[in-house]
Design a protein that fits this description.
This is histidine kinase. InterPro entries: HAMP_dom, HATPase_C_sf, HATPase_dom, His_kinase_dom, HisK_dim/P_dom, HisK_dim/P_sf, TCS_sensor_his_kinase. It is an enzyme of class 2 (transferase). GO terms for molecular function: ATP binding; phosphorelay sensor kinase activity. By secondary structure, the protein is an alpha+beta fold. Among the domains are: 150 residues, no CATH class; 153 residues, 2-Layer Sandwich (Heat Shock Protein 90). 52% of the residues lie in helices and 17% in strands. The protein is built from eleven helices and 15 strands. The strands form three sheets. Strands 1-13-14-12-11-9 form a six-stranded mixed beta sheet, with helices on one face. The chain starts with a strand and ends with a strand.
Length: 455
Amino acid sequence: MNEAVGDGRRGSGWSLRLRLGLWLALAVTALWLAAATVAGLVLRREIGEVFDSALQEVAQRVLPLAYAELLSRDGGSATQHMAPIGPHREYITYVVRDADGRELLQSSDADLMQIPRGLPPGFHSTERLRTYTEAAVRGTILVTTAEDLGHRRAAVRRAVVALIWPLVALVPIALVGVWLSVRLSLRPVITFRSAIEERGRGNLAPVAAVGLPEEIAPVATSVNALLERLRGALEAERGFTANSAHELRTPIAAALAQTQRLVAELPGGAPRERARSVAVALKRLSRLSEKLLQLAKAEGGGLLAETPTPLAPVLRHVIADIDRLTDRGEDLMVEIPPDSGLVCDLDPDAFAILARNLIENALKHGTPGTPVRLRLADGLFEVSNGGPVVPADRLARLIRPFERGPTGAEGSGLGLAIVAAICRGAGLTLDLASPIPGEADGFRARVRFAAVPQA
């Protein structure tokens, strides 16, 4: 079973930086495409006007030349073809006809254009051609200029492509620019978020709100107010716990002392046995009250220290105290590497409670005569003891209050619940295993915490 506690989860959605960068890049791309589309429509109209003007100008220039050419003829009626001057592509062709439609003069590529006859003066469009016809000498001479509409469409297409192709280079540049701009703009927000995440493990200091945008500044004020109220509540709870511990221990200890004195003064018999039973019950009540106070402290917060603390001295002190109270120090096999230098931000008192409960639990429920192994190294604290295998279904319930394993030893069933509560509150990981990995039986509790090498 793996009990991971205090593990803050980030939202599974996209980050604000990614959303802003993506939407801004898409907006720039859409606006560019819309502008290119509008520009293409305007270009098509302007290019059409330019080419129409060219058709008209060619017709007007050819007309007097054609008239002069016809006057200089010697009476031949054959169509005269104007020879091209060098190889070239003729985009605008022309043909000169008389009133009866006979072709008198034409450009070199006019046959390929197949300019229709009988066109009225002015502009005219067919499925393939755009033409302009100019009449002279009272309609006896007609000059028709023609252009392939495919040429116009190709010109418009090339112009639009020339507007769009920079978009291929613009989009990556825009993405990078938008990403950098958003990242720089949101840097105070990211710092604010990181500060709040740090407060999640017990640090209740106010969050700095320097440089936050106007929309986020009220959030920082509210968070700081909430942290202040939470800190006051935790301090009040810690004070109540400490006072309760003192107020409960004192009368219970006094009652136990008086009961033990009564046992010593009473003669043998039923009254003395009843007094002894009362003393045993008071001892059990004393242990139970202590465990309940430890559980209240574990579940109440305040489990992290402001500065990291070495754990090895705390563990040695706990072991010495257990040996003094139970005289079972020889049953403990302790492994603390001298060069481990292990420090942690777990409060020393909280770690002492955690270690004491794990060690007492192992001594109480372990196989008699089998040593309890303790190991504090490599970011781990392990306590292992011999004993019968705990079924997997019961193993998962041992961290619940008052839940006990297959043992006949006395106990309240709160030890592992206290350890689990401390792990949850401090962001540690508690792992219980039975049998011990690599062995046939036994029980192992392992606590994993974020360790920092000691300076």
